[in-house]
Amino acid sequence: MGIIHLSFMIPKYGDIMTSPPFPRSGVCMDDEETLFNVRESNLDTGLRGIPVGTCQTSYVDPMEGVHYVGYPVEDLVDLEEEDVIYLLLFKELPTKEQSDKFRAELVHRAESLPTGALRVLESLTPGSGHPMDWLAIGIMALGTAEATGDVRADSMNLIARMPELMARVFLLRGGRKEQLKPRNPELGLVENFVHMLGVEGEEAERMCRVLRFFFILHMDHGGGNLSTFTGKAVASGRASVYSAMSSAMNALSGPLHGRANQAVLEFIQRIGTSSEDEVKSFVNAEIDARRPIYGFGHGVLRAEDPRARLLIGLGEEICPDEELYKTVKVLREITPDILKERIPKISNPYPNVDLGSGTLLHSVGFRKPDYYTTFFGWARVAGICAQILDERNAREGRGTPIYRPKYIPKNQPHRRLD
Ligand code: MLT
Asked: How far is CA 213 from CA 3, 49, 140, 218, in A?
């Protein structure tokens, strides 16, 4: 998520009759309460801000950012990734015993990728297509080989297999398949991925530190972000978790959604300096040329994204003296004021999660920004699976009905062939 588009003003919200964030966990709603008045001006705005369902995994406070089952994400960043996944699935942080059992289940389910799915990935030409295409194809291919139709089992299998799928996408697409190390799921999700890439020692530790942090911050972001919504919409037709997730990954791959993290690093590389005056001139010149300012703005947030603050904070530990990181800090400092001055109606001129993430990934060895969205996608598999499971369990186990919003006909006068 996250660019400011100069030619696009966020449409006006309708009236939310319950104070945001809606709903906070535990809020009881009266069946007849009016939550939102849909006005004509709300049409053709991508359902922006219109409540369509409930979400039990996370909510996004416009000022304070995302909370996972009530916890601000900053409380969770230093936990083990499996425990945060457990929280999203079961709505409580695990006890030591629950955590051990959950990990053991993931290890047990992390069998090697089925041969058929592997062959599909191996048949793709290294370097061709976007890594997100490979990820979506890989998930789909896994589904053809092993979907059971049981949402819980399929979700757990997919979560458990993602480290290997990710490693294979990286190495097969990169034409380096001989570097792949045998999987070792006992290491945990993030470490197993890093190990399979063949990274070791101190380099592996730095990589794991950044990836785990990134992974936890990106797992979920309420129910209405495009990839989650797409995954749930597809799942509502009772398609398999794999089909739903592959669709979600395709939704995430667009530059207005997950692929913005790739665009931010490319933007920062184009700036090429951390000199404050030069960064200011660059940003102003981009605005003059009506080009997007990457890493700022958000569809829901109205203050700096806490995930941006946390990632930039981590940069002090990981890469304080690197030029790209210093450029990020200068951008964070100067851009909101420039945006407010140049675009007075702007609703959110503040940094979003993408501003610092690419710089950290780059610093720990991921030099190709086109892979960054796959990390976002991998993380979101957990949140999307958890939300699909919640929707499937809704209404006393009957599940959320198939998604079917209404579109108002336009420019379609009644006609007949003579
Ligand atoms: C995010 O993580 O910021 C989202 O997926 C984008 C959104 O919430 O719309």
From this structure: 22, 29, 27, 9
User: Which residues fall within 8 angstroms of residue 22, CB to CB, at 6 or more apart?
Assistant: 16, 35, 51, 59
CATH number listed for the domain at residues 260-363: 1.10.230.10
Q: Quick check: bond before 126 cis, omega within 30?
A: no
- CATH 1.10.230.10 maps onto the chain at 260-363
For 81-254+382-393, CATH gives 1.10.580.10
What are the pLDDT digits (tens) for 402-418? 999 999 999 999 999 98
Q: Rounded to the nearest whole angstrom, what is the distance from the C-alpha of residue 303 to the centroid of ligand 1?
A: 14
Domain span(s) for CATH 1.10.580.10 in the chain: 81-254+382-393
- Which atom number of ligand 1 is nearest to the Cα of residue 226? 9
pLDDT for 7 beyond 60: no
| pLDDT higher than 80, residue 219 | yes
pLDDT in tens, 352-381: 999 999 999 999 999 999 999 999 999 999
Distance CA 354, CA 259 (A): 9
Q: pLDDT band at residue 14, thresholds of 50, 70 and 90?
A: very low
Nearest CA residue ID for atom 3, ligand 1: 1
Ligand 1 contact via 221 beta carbon (within 6 Å): yes
Could you confirm whether 298 is annotated as catalytic?
A: yes
Whether this model's pTM surpasses 0.90: yes
Amino acid type, 387: Q
Ligand 1 atom closest to the Cα of residue 228 is 5
User: How far apart are the CA of 363 and the centre of ligand 1, in A?
Assistant: 24
Average pLDDT, the chain: 93
Nearest CA to ligand 1 atom 8: 225
